Amino acid sequence: MTEVRGGCVWLTGLSGSGKTTLACAVAAQLTARLCEIVLLDGDELRKTLCAGLGFSRTDRVENIRRIARYARELAQARKLVIVAAITPYAEMRADARQHVPGYIEVWVKAPLNVCINRDPKGLYARAMHGDLPNFTGISDPYEDPEHPDLVVRTDLLPIERCAELIVARVLAECG
């Protein structure tokens, strides 16, 4: 097992793009190779660390700020952190890059129509019917990353292949 310097793989993309599935696949591939991996899922963190925050721009920025600060503490403790969070605004990703050591931004890219067709939680349907205000990709913007460290196309490649691309990048930078 390899000791890591600590770092953070930040998976950003639309709801339904495959961030959580990909985070789990990356963690599974890296677990046998690296010391300690911590998976931070944006949906799960909204129940604990970020409980009480809504979906206004201000609350979304605070949500990601909290996740980034937690990821920083973990990375400084020499853990590899995998964050799966929509992170829709460029300012959020810039803040995370500035504060989290070993930050690797991965754009989990899938076209909106693919994400809508996947709609694993039924959220797009609810948003398009007006039941979910401020929904990223429908009534709130997702600002495409301008300079991600890696782009994986989950609409074109299987999850395992996308995970392999991320693992290769992690091993090159954090291992």
Task: Describe the overall structure.
- With 175 residues, the chain is of the alpha/beta class.
- Helices cover 43% and strands 15% of the residues.
- The protein has helices spanning 19-31, 42-45, 57-76, 90-99, 112-118, 123-128, 159-173, and strands spanning 7-12, 37-41, 80-84, 103-109, 150-153.
- The N and C termini lie close together (10 Å).
- The mean pLDDT is 92.
Main traits of this protein?
175 residues; alpha/beta; Rossmann fold; five-stranded parallel β-sheet; 5 strands
Helical content stands at 40-55%
Second-tier CATH architecture: 3-Layer(aba) Sandwich
Largest sheet: 5 strands, parallel
Distance between the termini: 10 Å
Shape: globular
Read across the widest sheet, the strand sequence of neighbours is 2-3-1-4-5
What is the CATH superfamily classification?
A: P-loop containing nucleotide triphosphate hydrolases
Q: How many structural domains does the protein architecture include?
A: 1
Mean residue pLDDT: 92
Number of helices: 7
* Secondary-structure content class: alpha/beta
Topology-level CATH name: Rossmann fold
CATH class assignment: Alpha Beta
Proportion of residues in β-strands: 15-25%
Radius of gyration: 15 Å
Reading the helices and strands in chain order gives: EHEHHEHEHHEH
Which spans of ≥5 residues are poorly predicted at pLDDT below 50?
Answer: none
